[in-house]
């Protein structure tokens, strides 16, 4: 039997692998985590059974979700209905789950029954579609830099690019959803992005995906800790030590990070979405009735990137007179780096697909993800367009990178900062939650045989890991001067891949293997044998051209285009990073805030 996802070397007929001293084929409950001997067609066989069961359950007992349940999703009453030890639906059995058994250890796995194994998978599927909507929105929605982006792109390119990347992000989400439904099951649950990469392309892509995702989420947590620290230092009028301002949020993360399930995060995400909307409405009102915050425009406004003369005041009369607000219909600068910088803002704005698999993995009914995703994407796009255009109209080249800090009245600036740090902390906790799960599922369970997270020992280990994770994120972010410049490089290398490169690549591998299947081929659960009549390049070519080959070509071009955008983004970010390092930088181990113009 072939290693999973190795498309060019798909195995032909053969006997299923067996453990010494055990007769018959190996059931799913006794497979090793990320077992290379599990065939792609074994994954799809059990996935089909799981989808059929979900649809049958949905028909017999459809959920009743009203308008208020969508706005305010309640805590779930539990996971998917377990099965008893005889395989029947219901909760009458005496099965007590996987208890404290080490699911990553072969000898312990042999002791786990099929009912125990599938019930463990069912137990974590607690999230509702409405909760998923808020999780996606909290993950992606970041409208406070869109006005700045419009200032670097101009009206036409700005609106056009944000529309294009929004549509592409939705298409990528659809691709991930399609593959997830095809390879996820109660017997072989797909828990994270790396699992989809593993089941379609094999170990190498899985390791690349897990490394990039872990790095991205760790840095994302650190970025929010530092940005919240900057906001708090601004609120305190720089009287509170900057290092303390950042450390406070890291410590708060120790507590918020103890939330383990995404269903519970759905409640927090609900709060975060409404807080962000409130910030938008407040800042929009202030924009229309007060001038921009001219003093900080040199620190990160659109004009500081495009043309510094447009924000340089005239002091000839002894009174600072700032240039009038300017708008551009087209690209305001001929500098390639500036244009790419604005382009990347559009790419980053929708870069949240790295968490989509984790969201689907904890949904009671993964089919509901598509409605939640498209609803969230339309809502996010609407917020971007309305708020971004409004901000750019009123502030022009003075549009600041963090819009609510670009208002001039200190009182409104303070209110925006305090609301934003609350929603930011929730977002950081969400990133930390997924980041820890990536490490736990792919490192601790597989390499060190850690207990499952639903066990008592697993929960205790989680509680111990959370402060360690947040501490590392804080130290990493705090110790690097001009950290936000460095995150631009990280975003180009990581963010773009998860939203625009990996989805078409994973979909390509899934389509090739699915359409390469011939009559008489497939997985036989009675014997554990995967019957294939050929393998290698011939099989790959047949799968590529078997059905709608032009979609496969489109996915290759899509992935290649995303890689080009990633390279351009890395170039642009490095360019501005080099410029930033020419000036003395302040890190978060200092008492001086980088926002303080008069230290």
UniProtKB/TrEMBL annotation:
<feature type="domain" description="Amino acid transporter transmembrane">
    <location>
        <begin position="140"/>
        <end position="509"/>
    </location>
</feature>
<feature type="transmembrane region" description="Helical">
    <location>
        <begin position="378"/>
        <end position="395"/>
    </location>
</feature>
<feature type="transmembrane region" description="Helical">
    <location>
        <begin position="549"/>
        <end position="571"/>
    </location>
</feature>
<protein>
    <recommendedName>
        <fullName>Amino acid transporter transmembrane domain-containing protein</fullName>
    </recommendedName>
</protein>
<dbReference type="InterPro" id="IPR013057">
    <property type="entry name" value="AA_transpt_TM"/>
</dbReference>
<feature type="transmembrane region" description="Helical">
    <location>
        <begin position="267"/>
        <end position="288"/>
    </location>
</feature>
<feature type="transmembrane region" description="Helical">
    <location>
        <begin position="415"/>
        <end position="440"/>
    </location>
</feature>
<keyword id="KW-0472">Membrane</keyword>
<feature type="transmembrane region" description="Helical">
    <location>
        <begin position="486"/>
        <end position="508"/>
    </location>
</feature>
<feature type="transmembrane region" description="Helical">
    <location>
        <begin position="235"/>
        <end position="255"/>
    </location>
</feature>
<dbReference type="Pfam" id="PF01490">
    <property type="entry name" value="Aa_trans"/>
</dbReference>
<comment type="similarity">
    <text>Belongs to the amino acid/polyamine transporter 2 family.</text>
</comment>
<feature type="transmembrane region" description="Helical">
    <location>
        <begin position="159"/>
        <end position="183"/>
    </location>
</feature>
<feature type="transmembrane region" description="Helical">
    <location>
        <begin position="336"/>
        <end position="357"/>
    </location>
</feature>
<keyword id="KW-0812">Transmembrane</keyword>
<keyword id="KW-1133">Transmembrane helix</keyword>
<feature type="region of interest" description="Disordered">
    <location>
        <begin position="79"/>
        <end position="98"/>
    </location>
</feature>
<feature type="region of interest" description="Disordered">
    <location>
        <begin position="1"/>
        <end position="33"/>
    </location>
</feature>
<feature type="transmembrane region" description="Helical">
    <location>
        <begin position="461"/>
        <end position="480"/>
    </location>
</feature>
<dbReference type="GO" id="GO:0015179">
    <property type="term" value="F:L-amino acid transmembrane transporter activity"/>
</dbReference>
<feature type="transmembrane region" description="Helical">
    <location>
        <begin position="208"/>
        <end position="229"/>
    </location>
</feature>
<dbReference type="GO" id="GO:0016020">
    <property type="term" value="C:membrane"/>
</dbReference>
<feature type="transmembrane region" description="Helical">
    <location>
        <begin position="131"/>
        <end position="153"/>
    </location>
</feature>
